[in-house]
Amino acid sequence: MVLLSLITNSFFLGYLAVFIVTHIPFDIVMLAKRGKASYPRPSFETFFETFAVIVPTLIFWLFLFINPIVFFNSGKDYASLEIGFSTWEWIIRVIGLVLLSVGLLIGCLGRIGRGAYLARNESKLATNWGHAIVRHPSYFMYITGFIGLLLASLSPYLLILLIGIPGYILTTIHEEKDLKEAFGEKFTKYKKKIGMLFPKIKY
Predict the structure, then answer these.
(1) How many other C-beta atoms can be found within 10 angstroms of the C-beta atom of residue 202?
(2) Which of 20, 26, 192, 198 is most buried, taking the most CB atoms under 10 A from its CB?
(3) Where are the domains of the chain?
(4) 185 CB burial (10 A radius; 0-12, 13-18, 19+)
């Protein structure tokens, strides 16, 4: 399954590149123009929440960076599990890559939308770009990313990433309280239209 490993590890490098290109410029501008603008940041209220967010997130990024390096240097994907049925392996990995792609797209759109506000030193509720799809695009990116990376890599070592899902859900719930305090009725109206972590089905 060298071809599958080649495709997935090339995708991982592309994923990193897209993330860096859409995030780092806004981070630099925001640091350079640090002013009155602010936005609620994650606040961890328990040890479990802290562990469940930080550890899986670190593992997620380290795997995306290290696994391709190991693969392209050795020609072997040591972390991946071969399930024995090539058709199923293709299906599982493709589902993982789709999840990663969707999460990355929405996460990057959210970063651009919020970053544009903060770069102009405007303290306002971000409701466009990725925030017009879900209220927390970055957390959506990580939740779909944890599941997607596990499926795309077929690595049993990445089962630990699933701990990050309840971690990010708890963080989202706490951040929602801060957003309500910061933006009041505007956030309440926004909350009715846009889903918290997954898009609302409109019918």
Answers:
(1) 5
(2) 26
(3) 2-32+49-193
(4) exposed
